[in-house]
Write a structure and sequence with these properties.
173 residues; alpha/beta; five-stranded mixed β-sheet; 33% helix
């Protein structure tokens, strides 16, 4: 039986040592399990030192994620990319997409712009995408941000992989 968590963890560790390339092995031998986005649980960031070179950004992101339920949304995952992933010594911000579920009976949409501005003031450039909407729009959004965050501004060349943080309370991998 394949141990998915071992594959995810192993590829993530290889990616860290290699500054997050899109693939840690030959492209033709790569799969969604062993290539970008490299998966981690939010606790790996908060407690285990994953991405410790970006600890200040991730602490601010964690504060924001903790506040999200107060506006009616539950964080499910965060896709992190841009210059904060990889070798750049001092990126200006953390680019990410926060995928969330609407808490039943709530309507977060009127609060999202203010929430996004608060994150921006903490140098977190976050986009907020609901996962409980049209699945094709979700797939399109993931595809768009994957492409955007994998390259440098003004270039079409893919230069880096991404990190996908699982924000659900229970670790599933």
């Amino acid at each position: 039986m394949v141990d998915i968590s071992q594959i995810l963890r192993g590829s993530r560790e290889l990616a860290v040592r290699s500054n997050f390339p899109p693939f840690v092995g030959p492209e033709r031998e790569s799969t969604p399990l062993n290539a970008t986005p490299y998966m981690a649980h939010i606790s790996d960031v908060q407690e285990d030192g994953f991405l410790s070179n970006r600890a200040a950004f991730l602490a601010e992101l964690s504060v924001g994620l903790d506040q999200l339920p107060s506006i009616g949304a539950k964080p499910i995952a965060v896709l992190i990319g841009g210059s904060a992933i990889g070798p750049k010594p001092d990126p200006s911000d953390l680019d990410c997409v926060v995928f969330y579920e609407v808490i039943e009976g709530e309507s977060p949409s009127k609060h999202l712009s203010k929430f996004q501005k608060q994150l921006k003031s903490r140098r977190i450039d976050a986009r907020l995408i609901p996962i409980d909407g049209d699945p094709l729009l979700l797939i399109k959004a993931v595809s768009f941000f994957t492409t955007l965050y994998s390259k440098n501004s003004g270039s079409l060349e893919i230069v880096r992989g991404l990190v996908l943080l699982d924000c659900r309370p229970q670790r599933t991998f």
